Fold:
Amino acid sequence: MSRVLTIDSKSNPRIKEYRKLKDKKHRREQNLFLVEGFRLLEEAFKAGLSVEAVLYDPDKEGDFQRYVQPYLQEEEVIKTSRAVLAELSETVHPQGIIAVVKLPLAKELPHTLTPESAMYLYLDGLQDPGNLGTILRSAHAAGAAGVLFGPGTVDPFGDKVVRSAMGSLFHVPLYLSGLDTLETLVSQGYALAVTSLEAKEDLFQADLTGNLIMVIGNEGSGITPAMAKRGDILLKIPMPGGAESLNAAVAASIILFERVRQLGAKTCTNPPNLL
Structure:
């Protein structure tokens, strides 16, 4: 049974602590982050995330009963004011509910290769929150095994990423010590795939059906030279229109779904046509 409290003051010690979760450092220290919005919180519950507290505006009681109440067990429920929610929100128009949720981090990798091949994404200094949110949605939709966060990559639990990922953040395994995780996967036999102008074959000619780690680089500078040198598979996305480059999230999505197409062609008599 959930415990119900009322807090109306922005200076309440509990509210002050929750406000600190807007900062990456505090999120990592407390192993908590903020999720705003009724549908997004419903998705967090459906994904099995651990919710510590739910703060909502009583004027939104109808939405609360529809999207949140059915999932409540022992979470603390705090009825509060719009002013308090505005302190915690990073949106122009707060949606009337914010939850304090434990970070959904993957704990460990499989010790050996699984019978079915898997694809991980390694983010090599990706910095734009919107791009990360889009990549997480594509990774979720395409069945990626996980996303590895390399040095300099944007924090996945900031408000802009959480909102732009549209709930996919809750469903894709995330590895914040991405470089260490990458080395473990490479030691298990995973190949590193990188985009390169020196690639001799384009994306649609390469075999993407094995155990792969796809490296996605920084929006401005691309993949770091050290990572580019390690590439086992060099890929290029054909651009007959003559554009110099693609958005990082778009490139990642194209590669992910080319793998989906190839896997379908390998296993189905009527493969999906995604081109």
